[in-house]
């Protein structure tokens, strides 16, 4: 990469180790940990298997992060995972990742987190509700509705994008403040839950028969619980992990800002390892607290928090239900505010990071050339606004669960391909400098590939997720003709072969 002239916009190395850790933890902790345990409990139906899902998710996430760090230390460039895939497999694979990142991965996460922010706002201001329809029409047999939740989600994305267009220092300041706040909030929820919220009836109910796996119906569906075992239990665990893996994702986003990080060869690896370890530990502890405070099983028609249990917490807001159980209605309001701050901070980190990948693609001649420009604040402003536009379009679906299913298959599939890249580069470029070598190689990266591939296969064959996963594959395949279009139209102007 050529050195920029002093008077030209260029990336500034403004992110230190603490900033980077806050970006990792802040991007990971969004809305998922406060919501998805309700759906997980309906999928597997027991306290033991709920904890297994989170422990397995924690292992997979940690294995991915400590393996991925080798690539981050080798190529500490703006673009992160896009660059790693380009170096290991070439431009086509890298483009398909970047294409999917823009269409559904990064923008889908931004949309899902923004929708969650809007839903939690409804705890404080009931006007924000999916039932509050602002506009409705029928287009060619498709019934389109626009709710107050979608409006607020779009306004949030636009607002955070505008803040990040002001420069990386603004984005990192927001992330440091909100990242620290959400870590403290999770720690306090754990402490208060253990000190004040222990429910001996719930503990007895949850742990007396903690391995009796059952499949429960979703809210609004009347069906008897279905005992599951063997392959059905394996599939249920895989489907349940869609939510837990989503909650643990975005640990890689710090890599997108490689050229804005101080001492990136060390900082990237350390921030991913430290940040992922902190979040994984907190997630497991918070789920233990859930099980110590609320019964797992409940009824969607129950009038009380305890009666609805974890499975049927209102709008799946398990953390809010725990806070209400411990501290009363005021606790629910406090938790709603903290979760709003958490989701705001998560989207700030994700929005800040993602635009750097599109910038790198455009520099390679594989995306719109205008996205390869930095604004006066030395950030890729046009890439930020392009990302904002598409994330807002995705918000129009308004379905949190559907967005998760679209996102997670593509996310994990590309993680698998990227970790395979470690093996490829060890063979093709054995002499390349590696400031950090993947811990436990080849066992740990190999285990990650095995477990993550199994997860992808489950999503492809499970009835509830197969349609979304197949659509995800189709979206990737649509990138093939687009790649050749961009390569032919813009590749030469970017100086690429």
TrEMBL record:
Coiled-coil intervals: none
Compartment(s) of residence:
Membrane
The reply to whether Iron figures as a keyword in the UniProt entry is no
Known InterPro entries for this protein? Answer: AA/rel_permease1, AminoAcid_Transporter
Top-level division of the source organism's lineage: Bacteria
Q: Which residues cross the membrane?
A: 20-41, 47-71, 92-120, 140-163, 183-203, 223-246, 267-293, 332-359, 406-426, 438-462, 468-486
Q: In its keyword annotation, does this UniProt entry include Transcription regulation? A: no
Please name the Pfam families in this protein's record.
AA_permease_2
* Sorted UniProt keywords: Membrane, Transmembrane, Transmembrane helix
Topology of this chain in the membrane: Multi-pass membrane protein
Q: What is this protein called?
A: Amino acid permease
Lineage of the native species? Bacteria, Pseudomonadati, Bacteroidota, Cytophagia, Cytophagales
């Amino acid at each position: 990469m050529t050195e920029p002239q002093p008077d030209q916009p260029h990336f500034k190395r403004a992110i230190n180790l603490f900033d980077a850790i806050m970006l990792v933890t802040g991007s990971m902790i969004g809305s998922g940990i406060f919501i998805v345990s309700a759906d997980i409990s309906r999928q597997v139906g027991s306290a033991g298997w709920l904890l297994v899902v989170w422990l397995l998710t924690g292992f997979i996430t940690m294995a991915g992060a400590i393996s991925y760090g080798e690539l981050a230390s080798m190529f500490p460039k703006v673009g992160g995972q896009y660059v790693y895939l380009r170096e290991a497999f070439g431009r086509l694979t890298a483009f398909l990742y970047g294409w999917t990142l823009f269409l559904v991965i990064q923008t889908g996460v931004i949309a899902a987190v923004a929708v969650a922010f809007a839903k939690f706002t409804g705890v404080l201001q009931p006007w924000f509700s999916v039932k509050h329809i602002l506009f409705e029409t029928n287009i060619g047999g498709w019934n389109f509705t626009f709710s107050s939740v979608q409006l607020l989600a779009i306004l949030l994305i636009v607002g955070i994008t505008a803040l990040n267009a002001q420069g990386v220092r603004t984005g990192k300041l927001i992330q440091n403040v909100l990242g620290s706040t959400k870590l403290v909030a999770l720690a306090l929820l754990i402490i208060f839950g253990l000190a004040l919220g222990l429910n001996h009836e719930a503990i007895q109910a949850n742990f007396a028969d903690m391995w009796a796996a059952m499949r429960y119906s979703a809210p609004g569906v009347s069906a008897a619980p279905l005992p599951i075992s063997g392959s059905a239990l394996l599939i249920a665990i895989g489907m349940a992990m869609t939510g837990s893996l989503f909650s643990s994702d975005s640990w890689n986003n710090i890599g997108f800002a490689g050229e804005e990080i101080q001492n990136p060869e060390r900082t990237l690896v350390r921030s991913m390892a430290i940040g992922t370890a902190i979040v994984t530990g907190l997630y497991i502890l918070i789920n233990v607290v859930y099980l110590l405070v609320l019964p797992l099983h409940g009824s969607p028609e129950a009038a009380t928090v305890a009666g609805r249990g974890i499975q049927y917490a209102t709008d799946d807001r398990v953390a809010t239900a725990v806070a209400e159980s411990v501290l009363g209605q005021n606790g629910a309001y406090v938790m709603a505010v903290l979760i709003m701050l958490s989701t705001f901070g998560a989207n700030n980190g994700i929005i800040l990071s993602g635009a750097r990948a599109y910038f790198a693609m455009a520099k390679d001649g594989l995306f719109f050339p205008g996205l390869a420009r930095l604004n006066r604040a030395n950030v890729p402003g046009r890439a930020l606004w392009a990302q904002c536009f598409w994330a807002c379009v995705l918000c129009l679906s308004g379905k949190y669960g559907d967005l998760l299913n679209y996102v997670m298959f593509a996310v994990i599939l590309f993680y698998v391909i990227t970790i395979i890249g470690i093996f490829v580069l060890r063979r093709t470029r054995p002499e390349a400098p590696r400031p950090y070598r993947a811990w436990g190689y080849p066992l740990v990266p190999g285990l990650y590939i095995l477990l993550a591939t199994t997860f992808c296969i489950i999503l492809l064959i499970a009835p509830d997720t197969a349609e979304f996963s197949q659509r995800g594959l189709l979206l990737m395949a649509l990138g093939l003709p687009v790649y050749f279009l961009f390569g032919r139209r813009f590749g030469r102007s970017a100086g690429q072969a």
